[in-house]
Design a protein that fits this description.
Layout (H helix, E strand, L loop, with lengths): L1 H10 L14 H6 L8 H21 L10 H25 L1
Length: 96
Amino acid sequence: MSEHHESSQLLSPPSPPTTAPLKLPSVVESLLVSRENTDSVVFSIISQFKQRADFGRQKYGTTLDRDDLSRKEWVQHAQEELMDAILYLEKLKTLL
């Protein structure tokens, strides 16, 4: 019975190594945004931008760093987005 106890101890996984918390350079720290270092509105908007970027990357398989569109095509995309925004605002006006 004692042999079984000793062998089970040999098979147990080792404890994870203890490491000190990672210290970020102050420049990087100044770029991090959290609920603790900004107001709720700014935090909400930044979170929404991040979610939108993640969604776009997943849906379209690319980011805004892409270089396959001309300046004119970028302007066209912006115009279409702003036209959608005008339509949404007009709809909201009818609901007031």
